[in-house]
Write a structure and sequence with these properties.
The protein is about 25% helix and about 25% strand. By secondary structure, the protein is α+β, with helices and mostly antiparallel strands. The strands form two sheets. It has a six-stranded mixed sheet with strand order 3-4-2-1-12-11. The protein is globular and about 45 Å long.
């Protein structure tokens, strides 16, 4: 089972950047998208025709946030977070599959002036509580744009970004708490010393991607019980179309 997660920075925008051709060559069983920036009736019909089942959560505010999950086989069940404060921004989809729960998340950005840090910390706490509850029933895969680089190895310039949203102490401490609860950042677990492994590059300066001055803020985090089933955990850094690149998790049951 191949799972791919990608913050596409607009599902309509990525359509014009080779998305259909990429999907046809990759053919994941499950594709989790974040920052779709569209109501469901605005999704390009060519994308909806790619697979049999599409689940989505769009923000009330048009052109903002949003997540969608594409399945080759219909999941057993799909729910949103169940919290209007977060669901109104289209941030979470929870899918029950045969072997595990899959949580597709678009974590809030703390914003440049940190004004949304409190909101983000509340969201982080709610997500950790939710996946801990789900894990009592069956293992969990949580994926998406977490909007945080956990450790210095996870971004190119840690020293100059100490006060930058996405690398704030409060955000990083929560990710540490996540791991202390037993959850596994599977890419880093398998590549503990690998530098230069990033999933996002600023568009403010187009050359930073060529020079690989980036951040790793997109993750697959899994229950320890699933580790033995992981065949691959990779960053598809050569794929363009967004300011993020896709990440991949392949499981074998």
């Amino acid at each position: 089972m191949k799972l791919i997660s990608w913050n596409v920075n607009g599902i309509r925008a990525v359509m014009n950047k080779g998305f259909l051709e990429w999907y046809s060559s990759e053919l994941p069983e499950i594709l989790c998208l974040q920052e779709t920036k569209a109501q469901f009736d605005q999704f390009p019909k060519e994308i909806l025709e790619l697979t049999s089942t599409v689940e989505y959560s769009s923000a009330i505010k048009k052109g903002y946030s949003g997540v969608a999950t594409f399945f080759s086989e219909k999941p057993l069940d799909t729910k949103k977070m169940g919290n209007e404060e977060f669901d109104s921004e289209g941030r979470v989809l929870i899918h029950e599959l045969e072997h595990f729960f899959l949580v597709n998340c678009y974590f809030p950005n703390s914003s440049r002036d940190h004004k949304r840090l409190g909101y983000k910390i509340d969201f982080n706490k709610a997500i950790l509580k939710k996946i801990n509850e789900l894990e009592k029933k069956k293992p969990v895969v949580i994926t998406g744009d977490f909007n945080v680089a956990h450790r210095e190895i996870d971004l190119a310039n840690p020293k100059t970004n100490i006060k930058t949203a996405g690398f704030l102490p409060e955000e990083r401490e929560w990710f540490s708490e996540l791991l202390e609860n037993g959850w596994v950042d599977i890419f880093r677990k398998r590549n503990p010393q690998l530098e230069g492994a990033y999933t996002w590059w600023s568009v403010m300066n187009p050359s930073v991607r060529e020079r690989n001055i980036g951040w790793r803020i997109d993750y697959f985090v899994i229950s320890p019980k699933l580790e033995a089933h992981v065949k691959r955990a990779e960053i598809l850094h050569t794929i363009r179309g967004s300011d993020h690149c896709p990440i991949l998790l392949e499981l074998d049951f």
